[in-house]
Amino acid sequence: MAIIAVAGRKGGVGKSTIAGNLASEFAAMGRTVVALDADPQHSLAAWAAQGRGMLARCVEKVEASEALPARARRAEKTADIVLIDTPPGTPATTYQAALAADLVLLPCGPSPLDLLALKDALALALKARAERRSKRPRIRFVPSKVLMNTNLGRSLSSSLKDIGKKVLPPIGQRVAVAEAVAEGLTVREYAPDSPAHAEFEKLAKAVDKIVSR
Predict the structure, then answer these.
(1) Residue 78 domain-assigned?
(2) How many structural domains compose the chain?
(3) Do residues 37 and 60 touch, judged by C-beta distance below 8 A?
(4) CA distances from residue 119 to 79, 151, 158, 196 in whole angstroms, order as listed
(5) Domain enclosing residue 131, as ranges
(6) 129: CB partners within 8 A, 6+ apart
(7) pTM of the model as a whole
């Protein structure tokens, strides 16, 4: 069992997209999954509500009044994997998610502004680790919304490694991802033979290796 937080201080870097598609990939591995939508805008829940896919069965809203670590631990009693989708620009929620998590995934887009915001989110995850006096949460970077054929896209993984944390397989900027969301589906459900699905599948396998140790 594992609690995985997908966090970041900047909007638009793909947190909800990564959380939703990882939920689908873990379910395909035979895991029982709960995805907690802790963003007050509830984007992940809105995505799930559009269709009849697996997200409709596993996404739960977290209200602002709820204690996130306690809610995550309750979810862990009935799930193998608990994913937490956090809001941008809300450091308290990011910190609470990191306090609860075994693993924090920090997506980062290719722009310099994304890298600056990533360092803020990293500081919060490290603060949570210090508070817990533990090696957890583990912290990994995820290159996100990458245009692979651009200089910024090609250099993103190297830039992230320079910050000092391990980097997981990248997620590209793919039309299939947006189309899947519009249908209320994950990429696995909408376009299982697409490069987009191959990327999320690879990312999920990498995450699985970490949380299974």
Answers:
(1) yes
(2) 1
(3) yes
(4) 31, 21, 15, 27
(5) 2-203
(6) 98, 135, 136, 137, 139
(7) 0.94
How many other C-beta atoms can be found within 10 angstroms of the C-beta atom of residue 190?
Answer: 21
Mean pLDDT of 53-69: 92
Question: Which residue has 């996404």 as its token pair?
Answer: 59
Q: Write out pLDDT tens, residues 177-192.
A: 999 999 999 999 999 9
Has residue 44 been placed in a domain? yes
What digits encode the pLDDT tens for the residues 103-152?
999 999 888 888 888 999 999 999 999 999 988 999 999 999 888 777 66
| CA distances (Å), origin 111, targets 13, 89, 118, 126, 172 | 10, 17, 11, 23, 14
Kindly state whether residue 212 falls inside one of the protein's structural domains: no
Cα angle 69, 44, 80; round to 5 = 50
What separation, in Å, do the N-terminal and C-terminal C-alpha atoms of the chain show? Answer: 11
Chain centroid offset of residue 7 CA: 6
CATH number at residue 8: 3.40.50.300
Domain assignment present for residue 151? The answer is yes
Task: Give the separation between CA 62 and CA 9, rounded to whole angstroms.
Answer: 18
